User: Fold these one by one.
Assistant:
Number 1:
Amino acid sequence: MISIPLGKIAVPTPGTPVPITLTNAQKALLPPSGLVHKVEAWPDPTDTGVTKVLVGGTQVAGLPSPDTAAGGHAQPYQSKSEGNGVNPLAFSVDNTQAGNGPFVTLWVE
């Protein structure tokens, strides 16, 4: 399995989703289909807002930032399929606070 870390995708304006985009180097790691096995989004524990994961404009997950001071742990969102069947470019993220956003990683079989 190959991981393609995209890093933190910060949302500059709450309510305006930021699409997942790839650099040329990241695109080179994808199979010819451009599809991946899994899209994984982790809330940043230093954020204060709620991350929203969207597919085609429809929210599929809400990820609150964990209260790490109270022992909370981050809970990721994972969209996966058999083989490589997930289109990462269909995903976008939003957040309730400006500058907040998830860490996103793509996984390819």
Note: Residues 2-108 form a domain with the Jelly Rolls fold (CATH 2.60.120).
Number 2:
Amino acid sequence: MEGAIEKIDKSSVLDAIQEFVERFGYAPTVRELAGGLGCGHSTVQKALFDLVDEGKIKRVPGVARGIVVAGGVR
């Protein structure tokens, strides 16, 4: 298959963020999300941009663990 595009469900990314925060008390990095979900960094980045656009998360620029779930704690 030439040029296969990796996709992941945005709700899976959101669930992974929430589970990580519940377990560790702080937000995951993009690299941690990608590793945990078994996908690439750019795939997670795309999902995060979509989640920001939908108002489900916020991102703090320049902060490695700067993902904040809407209505939640970073």
Note: Residues 10 and 47 are 5 Å apart (CA to CA).
Number 3:
Amino acid sequence: MIHTATGASFSTYKPEPRQRIFHQVARWKGFAKLVKGAIGGLGGGKSAACQQEQAWTCTQTPNGVSIAGRVSMPKAELSLIDEYGEFLGEFAEWKKGAFNFSNGHELKIAPIDRWDRQGSTKFVTAYVQEAQEADMRSVFVLNERLRHPAGMVNKIPYYKLFFDSRPIEHRHWIAEKFIKNAWNVEDGADARKKAKMPHWVYVRFQTYDNSHLRPGYVSELEFEYQDDPRFMRMMLLGEVGYTLEGTPVYGDAYKPELHDATIEEDSRLPILRGWDFGYHSPAVVWCQYTRDGRLLVLREFTPREIALERFLDEMLAIQVTEFPTRHPSQYRDFGDIAGDQIDWTGQKPHEIVQARLNTFFEGLQKAKVDSGVDCLRRLMLKPARSFDGKLRTRFLVDTRCETLREALRGGYRYPEKGDTEKPKKRTGYDDVADALRYVAQSVVWESEAGNEYEWAGGRAATEFAVYGPHG
């Protein structure tokens, strides 16, 4: 049972280097609990690392109670019972919904589909498999329950919460609430003390980490998905910020290597603000449309769960910083003024914005999603225009617009593959995508109809400040 990483283990377990790193992370001084997230690609060894360390901890804490679960009991029965049973063998007996260790420790297998399902049960350890399927409260309520007396052995705490997850979007709670606050092992030991929650640990697993996979497994995946870089980066390299469900709205049109750039405003052109309102993830994008027919996204503001007045306060503060020489009259505003978004104060949000900013929304009554999507897709796919002998793409996004770029490269999706009626709502990406769409539907259509605006004077954008290979 000797194991070089944890001190003891089970004879069937031969940890890979990344699994050893996971096991070697100890609790942080001053904290009795340790939270470990194993996040990464297919077959990387995430589940095995969590299960082995949880089982080992059970052997070190006699008469304790622990739990392992997924969002539903059928899923737990399909995976957890068989997986634990396979390596526990003689060390624990499956009986009445739990693995019972010879030292009296009980490891329950249960669903975690509701945060209050476990009542006030106290645990030594908890493990959540495929945590991306669960909501945050259902996972972290288990952390609150890590207080079983058996978790203290000779005044040493053994309380641990483990979870594994496939890579997720940046707007998923694992990314927003856990990864942003946890210590990323890849940042080095010195970075742990700088983490907001140093007792939370994030270890990224890759499919390439696991030498025990059957021969040909990795090469088959590489061949099958060679034309889908999202799958490769997410499910093999374990990178966060991608999603695979449904169909990307702009997946075949938006190409980061072509459409991402570093962009600064052109002072001769007005700034076009696109708005989308909603308490959970409102959005503003600042854009410009050039004389040679290019839509350029300069900046974005995409907060979460914020009241309208505070949203406006923070938006204006960003705007003053980013565009300090701009007069309020140099902005045009666009949004779906017929939208059915949250009404905070009895007025429509756009009416509040108009009064506060002394502006006017050039909105589209019931702007159709498919028309706006088609407009942006044409900008992305249409061959570059020639202007003064230079080839230029018709659509560019500044690299600082992280949420919009994630939306365009796959976060903004139709619900199911082949379903192109309406993109998914309340994903954290639909708001910023809609804000951009409102600008495109108004201004690009206006320009292509021959109604180009004349505020800049002369031929604008001949020396537009776009840096890199796109300019």
Note: The radius of gyration is 26 Å.
